[in-house]
């Protein structure tokens, strides 16, 4: 029984996963993924790569999630699962790539600059 571990990131969220053969259980930080992500949309995001190649009940996934918010964590987990599935079966790469699950979303929050209230916002200019 082979265990594949990969990493997925999105914004400030980091997902480390351990994928092994099993019955389709997904455990996030020692909790079931349906309990961890109560929103059905986020559950769907996590399941997407497994459903695209039709192996939802074939693998058990143990996840360590850290940082970010719920949406960022779910998308980081989706990337990690996609990468792990490719390590197991290279044939599934084409389908996952076409669905857009292998692209690391590089968008980050822009830092706040000194002398400004936010990253881009300026204090009101007064001529006199």
Could you give a short account of the major beta sheet?
5 strands, mixed
CATH topology: Ribosomal Protein S5, domain 2
Global morphology: elongated
The beta-strand count equals 5
**Beta-strand percentage?**
15-25%
Number of helices: 4
Distance between the termini: 74 Å
List unreliable stretches of 5+ residues.
none
Tell me, what is the CATH class?
A: Alpha Beta
Q: Name the average pLDDT.
A: 94
Strand order of the largest sheet: 1-2-5-3-4
Secondary-structure class: alpha+beta
Helix coverage percent: 25-40%
The number of distinct structural domains comes to 1
> Mind telling me the C-alpha Rg?
18 Å
Order of helices and strands: EEEEHHEHH
State the CATH architecture.
2-Layer Sandwich
Question: What is the element layout, followed by pairings?
Answer:
Layout: E1 4-10, E2 13-21, E3 26-28, E4 31-32, H1 33-36, H2 40-53, E5 59-66, H3 70-88, H4 93-99
Parallel strand pairs: 3-5
Antiparallel strand pairs: 1-2, 2-5, 3-4
Helix pairs in contact: 2-3
